[in-house]
Structure formats: C-alpha cells, structure tokens
Here is the input.
Amino acid sequence: MTQIQGWAAHAPKEALKLTTIDLGEIGAEDVEIDVEYCGICHSDINMINNDWGFSTYPIVAGHEAIGRISAIGKDVKGLKVGQRVGVGWNSESCMHCNECKTGQHNLCTQATPTIAGGHLGGFANKMRAHWIWVLPLPENLDPSSAGPLLCGGITMFAQLYNFDIKPTHHVGVIGIGGLGHLGLKFANAWGCEVTAFTTSESKIEEAKSLGAHNVVTSYDTDSLLKLANSLDMLIVTSNVTLDWATLLKTLKPNGRLHVVGAVLEPMPIPAIDLLFGQKSVSGSPTGSPAAMATMLEFAARHNIAPQVEHFPMSKVNDALAHLISGKARYRIVLDADF
Here is the structure.
C-alpha cells in the first residue's frame, strides 16, 4: 500500500486542499513516480471544474509530470527504479485494440486520461501510470521546464510528425499562448517558414523571437487575404470562433486547417473551397507514446523548451488563479515542495 499527499479538489470549482489518499498495491504493469515538477494546463482547470462532465472527486489534477521512478510492477518493460521520466495526458490504454496494436495508443477508445477514471495526477508527491505511457526523459532536457512538452509540446509536434510536413513547407500558427509558442519553436526547428497569427500587436516581436518569420493580426481580413494560397498547414490553437472561410483561403491546394484548440461553436466551412483546392480540415488529441518519445528527442536535440513560470506546489491555488487570469507566459510549472 502507498499513501500519497495530493492537492485535491473535492467538488467542482472548490479550492484544492492537501489530502492523503491510499493508492493501494502497485499493479503488475504500473510505474510509481516520485513527482519533482508538474505543469498546469487549462485542461486541469476544466477537469477540476467538471466542465466536460466526467470528473470524479476527489480529483488530483496535473498531467505534465516529471519525476523519478520509485517502484515498478513485476511486468513493466524497459524502465527501472531511479530513472527520470514524464507522464502526459494519458496514463493507460487497453493495449489490445487495433489502435494500440498499430502504435496509435492515443486513439484507443479506452485510453484513460491521467486525471480521470480513478487515476490521480501530478499535483502530488507520487503518482502512477501504465509503463507504455511513462516516457524516459533525455539527459539534456531540463526537467524543471520539460513537463509542458508532454501535453502542449506533443499537441503541436504531432502535426509535423503525422502529416508529412516538410522543411520546405510554410506553416501558420493561430494563437501565441501556451500551445502556440511551442508550435512556433517546433515548426521553426523543423525547417519550415513560420507565420504567427495573433490578436495582440504587443506579441509581434515576441512571436518572432519564438521562431516566427512573419506575424499577422488574425482579426484583419486584408492581412489574411494577402496570405492567400501560401500555407501548407494552419494550426489553430485558439478556442474561439474565427473567420474560417477567410482562413481557408490562406491555404495552398492540398493545404490543411488543423484544429487543436477546443472550439466550442460549430465551424461553418465552405465546401467549395475544400473541393477546388483539395483542402482538408482536421483535428487531433495529443500523441502516441512513440510520437512523444520522438518529440522529446527532437526537443533535446534542438534545445526546445517551454517558456515557463514556476510556483511551489503548495501555492497551487495561486498558480491556478494566475493561469485563469490570462497572465501566464506561457506555461506554469509547479515545483514539488512536500
């Protein structure tokens, strides 16, 4: 039996309280991790507040965790006690469906988020996950800032990895925030021409420093139309309604409008532009364990790290309020201080 200390919400929209929880005996294929750092994502807030309707309480959020393995089940493969590892959005999948057997574990219909289905996340001194979802951290990645790569990082990297984006391609990123700033870094390191779309003129120079070669204001139709037929892929990290018809015009023939932000309103898409340009509209969740491992190696090779602010984990409620206020630049990491 393992008792942990976790910062838990006991009902929607309540402040997190330090809570003792019994994890029980470790499973045969489970890995137990002593948490050192854990990023905060907007999805943590959604789950704490039960915005998506499937949260269970008490909930210990946190799905961008970095730490060292403290125990392993008897059937764990390829990992050892003392190894520094990370866990992202998912911590379990069925391992026998077609998606799991073909390496697309993130598309498994039974994939379980790290902070749902009875699992406890990284706002704690310890956590557990199935070994397939526990990623060894490359030696030259800074563990204190690597956590957000396991959610925001893979969410942006997966599009370059999965859709055959080439270094000669032109990639656009809408929304320069927790996801978007990583998209600029990855696309630039991939070799692409990168255009940032932002509603804030104050972010123009910062976007360029993060890897954008060009910056346009996403609310200016004239600026968007000047990009007509220029982008191979346009990644939308924003969760608000945009001028989808005009954005489609920025794509080249065979171009792709790819959504990773949880846009809540239906998206009116003019079919005629899809037909004559052979364009695509798509979306995706995070990424498979294989894609995540590749992303971590790529980040280590190209010195890609999230831009983070640190809070002690004991100040998690202050950190959540800072994120909700929109002041975070651009990701928040909690330092375990139990």
